[in-house]
Design a protein that fits this description.
Helices cover 20% and strands 28% of the residues. The chain has five helices and ten strands, in the order E-H-H-H-H-E-E-E-E-E-E-E-E-E-H.
Amino acid sequence: MDIYDQEAYSVDVGTRLRQLREQRNLSMRSLATASGLSANALSMIERGKTSPSVSTLYKLADAMGVPITTFFGEPATKQQAIFIHAQERPRVPFSRGVWEGLGGEQFSGRVEPFMLTLESGASSGPHNMVHSGHEFVFCLRGQLEYQVEREIYTLESGDSLLFAAQLNHRWRNSGKNVANALIVLSGFSEDEQPHVMHWKKNKAA
């Protein structure tokens, strides 16, 4: 199955990024400075010439003070029960992969599930991730390598990993085939947005 051949709607990240930037009266140069990216890189993303990595999406969301799910569209009203048809699942393409929302952006509780589809070699970026709460990973197919502090875990289909998310961690598809993983963030502080923090650059790294 092709990595992008899924029943979900894709988000035009470049167009959405430009809309968010202009709504906040941010110049490309000022957003570049705030996010740590180059103005040329931002221009390429906005014009659809390149797909941002996961870590880049989080840097942009953090710089604009919005959750990454804002790239899906306008913020939804929080609800206590969320049902999503497969064909309605929001999907954000990034460099060598796809991230799919599973309702966490609409849920009023402290849990955020999402799905990752990763081409061989795809990764969370060069920096460690760190946030509050807990992180659960279930590998659906392929191979996914998680580094938690200095320990490396290689997950294959059916394998799972659960850890305290304040530990430094990162991930990559270390196999030769496409990998799928279900990730659930939970137990985070009420005032935190882990979808912003999850791949945020570790300032101490």
